Each structure stands twice: as C-alpha cells, then as structure tokens.
C-alpha cells in the first residue's frame, strides 16, 4: 500500500481541522465583540453600527466577497494571506488602542476574512464543510459556555469625553497565532479545483443582499425599542426575502441556506452553563457528534429541522424541559441537519453558516420586547435555572414566530425538492 505524502495528509485531514478551527475562531470573535451598552445608543447611524446586527452583517458580506474572490482569482497563497490579514485585524486591539465602537466593525472584517480563508479548501469536501458549518453555528448558539473559562471584559461605547475606553482583542493572540498557522498552512497546500468562472453569482447576491436587508429591517422595525407588531413584521419580511433568494439556487445550496435560517430561528432562547456543571458541555458535544454520525450515514435534513422546531417550541414549556431541549436535543438536531445538507457550494457553506449571527431579530431584538426591557434599556427576559444550565426565554409570541420560521424553512425545502424532481 502506497504511503501518503505529508501534502496528501494535509489535504485529506488538515482541511477538516482548519475548517473547524476557522469557523470557531471567526464566530467567537464576532460574538465576543458585542458592545454591552448598544441598546442605550440613539445617535443615528452610531446606534446601528455598534449593534450585534451590524457586526453579523458586516462579517457576512465580507466573507461572501472573500470566498468569491478566492475562488475566482485566488490560489492557496492568497488564501494564506487572507488568514494572516484576518488574524492581524482581530488581534489589532492587543497592540494599539481601539475603542469598543470601532472594534465592532474592525473585528467583524477580520473574522470574516479569516473565515473565507478557512472555507477555501472545503470545495467538494463534505467533512470539511460540516466542520466549518458546525464550528460557526455551534459556537454562535453555545457562546454562553465561554463564561466557564474566561471572565469577559466589559465593552462600553458610551464614555466620558476624551476617554476612548480601549478594548482587548476578542481572541487571545496566542490562539490566533496557532489558528493562523493551521488555516494558512492548509490553504497553502490545498487544491481548490475551482475553475476561474466557477462562482455562482446567485450565491454572491444572496450573501450580500440578505445581510443588508436584515440590517435595514433591524434599523426600521426590529431594533431594541421595537413593538411586538413591528418585530413580527420584520421577521415575516426577513423570512420572505430569504426564501425568495434561496429558491433561485440549486436544490442542495438552497436547502442549506434554509437550514441556516432555521438554526438562526432556534437562537430565540439562549443558554449558559453553571461552573458547577461543566459536564453539560461534553454532553452537548456528544449529542452533536451523534447527530453528525447519523446525518453522515443517512441524510435526514427534514428530521433535523423538525427537531430544531421542537427545541424552539420548548421555550413555551417548563424550564426543565426547555433546558433538556437546548442541552441535548438542539446539538443532536444541529449535527443532523448540517451533516445531512452537505456537500454544497463553498459560498453556500459560508452564507448559510453565518445566518445565525447575521439575522439577530431572534437572538437580540426578541429579548427586548418585554415592556420592562424597553423601559430600562436592557433585556429582562426570565433567566430560568435548572440543573446544569440557565435558559433565557423571551415572550411567547417570539417563540411561536421562531417555530413558524423553522416550519416555513422545512416546507420550502420540501417544495424545492418536489419541484426539482418534477423538472428533471
């Protein structure tokens, strides 16, 4: 049996590790950059550009453009440059003073450039695409687990005159260095296999238009001072635009984009972990791995999305049941849904994976719909502690809307499959 060369080993296994690490680092950087007082700002454009919505939208647009550029004109060397530049931008606050307001945009641009580099070697590589998607989505959904290992530094945009209140790097420099060596090294030896004209403009359009549309909806109808009626209107429009743009894509690409929409909707309730119950984190990992294993051998995207709908709907139930759903059912559903949808185009992997933090109507805006939250300027959603975790659930209307969004995604996937079968 012929022994594989180091380059072949890197191409076979390195892209999986690179994709996973790149997805985790990028998603963590975006989530960590959140400004603590963004809901207090009402200064025109500034009130938007310091929000999690702006960070997610900026990251999504830059990642889309980066992926398109790499697969249109790029080679492994350029992807390695992307990784190095992205990491340098993320680490910049560790070397020069950067205010919290500026770091939101700066960090999003760095994270998305890094993500584009990690996505570069994943073309037609199912395992690597699964790793990238799960790295981004799982980190976004379970970001609360980071509190077990680090004390988050507060990030304030509102400061005294002359006080810029510099913030640290969202990701420790030593982690960025190790991640950059991995991502850049794998990209350098990767064979893209991508022809110069092999860029789907429909995917680029979706990857740019959706984040901009979501940001406009957030500013117009879905900000932290919105009413329930306006919020529901924003959700309906956001879902309609996503479905319309996804419908124009090939079946498999559309399916993952809609799966990303469903994953974003399930973030309607958030979870954090108690330091006394760190075993719950390995339990999440085990459930995630089980979902991937099942989806790898027998793809069942509809079942995965169905479990996501059950998880979202559990927000209406007792705290114990909601906790069980988000600790055990959600990771199982996430792994199953993502693994069942792959492989797809690289642009679809990038755009679908970032939807959970690109569309913040569920994860951010919904938590401010309670009247007390709007009066005091921060979320007062009930924090229900049960055993190993604490689950934050907004008002029932938002839970129903999130569940309905997942059902719409499931129905659209079915209709797209039926239509494709009829046409062919």
Brief sketch in words of this structure:
Keywords: Membrane, Transmembrane, Transmembrane helix. The chain has 424 residues and is an all-alpha fold. The protein has 17 helices and 3 strands.
Based on CA inertia axes, which overall geometry fits?
A: globular
Outline the biggest β-sheet.
Answer: 3 strands, antiparallel
Mean pLDDT: 87
Helix content: 55-70%
Question: What proportion of the residues form beta strands (DSSP E)?
Answer: under 5%
Class by helix and strand content? Answer: mainly alpha
Listing every helix as H and every strand as E from the N terminus to the C terminus, the arrangement reads: HHHHHHHHHHEHHHHHHEEH
Distance between the termini: 42 Å
Count of alpha/pi helices: 17
Keywords: Membrane, Transmembrane, Transmembrane helix
Transmembrane segments: 12-31, 51-70, 77-96, 102-120, 127-149, 169-191, 203-223, 229-249, 256-273, 279-296, 303-321, 327-346, 353-369, 389-410
């Amino acid at each position: 049996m012929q022994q594989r060369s180091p380059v072949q080993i890197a191409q076979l296994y390195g892209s999986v590790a690179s994709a996973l690490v790149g997805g985790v680092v990028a998603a963590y950087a975006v989530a960590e950059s959140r400004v603590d007082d963004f809901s207090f700002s009402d200064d025109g454009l500034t009130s938007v550009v310091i929000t999690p919505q702006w960070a997610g939208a900026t990251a999504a647009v830059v990642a889309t453009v980066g992926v398109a550029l790499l697969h249109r004109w790029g080679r492994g060397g350029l992807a390695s440059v992307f990784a190095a530049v992205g990491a340098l931008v993320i680490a910049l606050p560790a070397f020069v003073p950067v205010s919290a307001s500026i770091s939101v945009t700066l960090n999003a641009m760095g994270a998305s450039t890094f993500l584009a580099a990690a996505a570069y070697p994943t073309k037609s590589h199912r395992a690597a695409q699964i790793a990238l998607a799960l790295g981004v989505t799982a980190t976004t959904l379970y970001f609360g687990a980071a509190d077990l290992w680090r004390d988050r530094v507060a990030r304030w945009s509102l400061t005294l005159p002359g006080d810029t209140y510099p913030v640290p790097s969202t990701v420790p420099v030593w982690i960025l260095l190790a991640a950059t060596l991995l991502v850049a090294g794998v990209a350098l030896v990767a064979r893209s296999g991508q022809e110069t004209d092999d860029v789907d403009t429909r995917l680029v359009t979706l990857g740019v238009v959706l984040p901009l549309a979501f940001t406009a909806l957030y500013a117009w109808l879905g900000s932290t001072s919105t009413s329930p009626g306006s919020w529901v209107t924003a959700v309906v429009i956001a879902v309609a635009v996503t479905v319309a743009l996804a419908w124009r894509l090939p079946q498999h690409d559309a399916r993952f984009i809609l799966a990303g929409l469903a994953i974003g909707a399930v973030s309607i309730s958030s979870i954090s972990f108690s330091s006394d119950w760190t075993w719950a984190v390995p339990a999440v990992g085990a459930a995630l791995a089980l979902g991937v294993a099942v989806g790898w051998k027998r793809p069942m995207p509809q079942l995965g999305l169905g479990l996501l709908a059950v998880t979202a709907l559990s927000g209406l139930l007792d705290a114990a049941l909601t906790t069980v759903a988000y600790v055990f059912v959600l990771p199982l559903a996430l792994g199953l849904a993502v693994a069942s949808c792959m492989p797809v185009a690289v642009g679809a992997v990038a755009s679908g994976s970032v939807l959970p933090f690109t569309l913040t109507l569920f994860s951010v805006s919904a938590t401010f719909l309670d009247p007390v939250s709007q009066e005091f300027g921060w979320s007062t959603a009930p924090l229900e502690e049960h055993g190993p975790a604490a689950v934050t659930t907004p008002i029932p209307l938002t839970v129903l809307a999130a569940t309905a969004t997942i059902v719409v995604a499931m129905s659209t996937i079915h209709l797209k499959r039926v239509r494709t079968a009829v046409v062919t």
